Amino acid sequence: MNDFSNLPPKGSSICVALSGGVDSAVSAAILKEMEYEIVSATLILCKNAENNYAYTSKHSRDDVLKISNRLGIKHFFIDASDLFKEIVLSDFNNEYEKGRTPNPCVRCNALLKWDIIMKKMREIGIHYLATGHYAGISKIGQNYFISKACNETAIDQSYMLWMLDRKYLPYTILPLNSFTKQQVREKAIEYEIEVADKKGSQDLCFIYKYKYYAKSRLREESGNIRLADGTILGRHKGLSRYTVGQRSGLGLAKGKPLYIVSMDADKNEIKVSFDVNDLKCRKIKAINANWFNNDDFKEYHVLTKIRYNSKPVSSLLSRISENEFTVEFLEQPYAATKGQSVVCYIDERILCGGIINEVE
């Protein structure tokens, strides 16, 4: 069963962030069936040269309108294109230029989707926001936490929500907390929603319209590819094309796998190794921390994820300040990458998250 402990009183108004995909569509349908007053909203993140709306694919706008019409709910398009450039795309470009690998979706969720939609909806008296993320909201004492999804599949998107401002959690509803993807598709068929079989997005939403724009602003200068002993093996095509842990696309035929272990933006160089164990990480330092608790403890035993799809590993978390923390890994993960998100869990709840800034 779903945990509906965070739901408002019956009859309350809820805005559903509608993407045009099956997950948000089913979330809206479930809440409407529960007799809530539902509206939906979609952020306009990019515009093409003709000033028409552009989304992950050219069909998304039509899908959003089909879903809202099918469910009989009022829909809002909110122009966030200028803020998207300023807050998400600019950071994306800057991080790649520094030889780091950013998480633009994490930043967009927190600083655009929740912040902008919440503020806009409150202007018309709607205080609750629902999305199609596979995650949960839990409450312990007076503290609200983002929790892992309690379904039996591999889908858990709590990692993508670590940056959310805590003030929004009491007003955040995640109806798919305990659903599997197959169950969601079955619900979509039951509700006669046309996007029941639509594939989930696998790419960055802005690449469809912005790949040339982004490429023109990313560092594309060729540089050396070196081994740890300084041996030059070849040339790369620009740091923005690579990430730590990558072992294909280097253009080097050496007869055995080569792994990217680090990237140096100052020297415009990539360091590689034939030994996958050189990717192991002992300790990281994170910045831009977001804490979900109010206690004064300095150290915690946690499970830590360093990538969206990485396995959580046993770790010791040490709070340096409200903005910084370190994680010492008791099980050393592979390919910790500067610029990526690190998220620490206690009992299936997110204790804190941050951006990896140093790797040892």
Features:
single chain, 360 residues, alpha/beta, SH3 type barrels, Elongation Factor Tu (Ef-tu), domain 3, 3 domains, five-stranded parallel beta sheet, 22% helix
Task: Give a quick rundown of the structure.
Helices cover 22% and strands 29% of the residues. With 360 residues, it is α/β, with parallel strands linked by helices.
Shape: globular
Mean pLDDT: 88
Low-confidence stretches: 49-57
Given the helix and strand composition, which structural class is it?
alpha/beta
How many β strands by DSSP? Answer: 19
Strand content: 25-35%
CATH architectural name of the largest domain: 3-Layer(aba) Sandwich
Describe the oligomeric state of these chains in a short phrase: single chain
Output the helix-strand order.
EHEEEHEHHEEEEHHEEEEEEEEEE
**Largest beta-sheet details:** 6 strands, antiparallel, barrel
How would you describe this structure to a colleague?
With 360 residues, this protein is α/β, with parallel strands linked by helices. It folds into three domains: 13-210, HUPs (Rossmann fold, 3-Layer(aba) Sandwich), CATH 3.40.50.620; 221-276, Adenine nucleotide alpha hydrolases-like domains (SH3 type barrels, Roll), CATH 2.30.30.280; 280-359, Beta Barrel (Elongation Factor Tu (Ef-tu), domain 3), CATH 2.40.30. Helix content is 22%, strand content 29%. The strands form five sheets. It has a six-stranded antiparallel barrel with strand order 14-17-16-15-18-19. Strands 5-2-1-6-9 form a five-stranded parallel sheet, sandwiched between helices. Strands 11-10-13-12 form a four-stranded mixed sheet, with no helix packed on it. The chain is globular and about 65 Å long. The model is unreliable at 49-57 (pLDDT under 50).
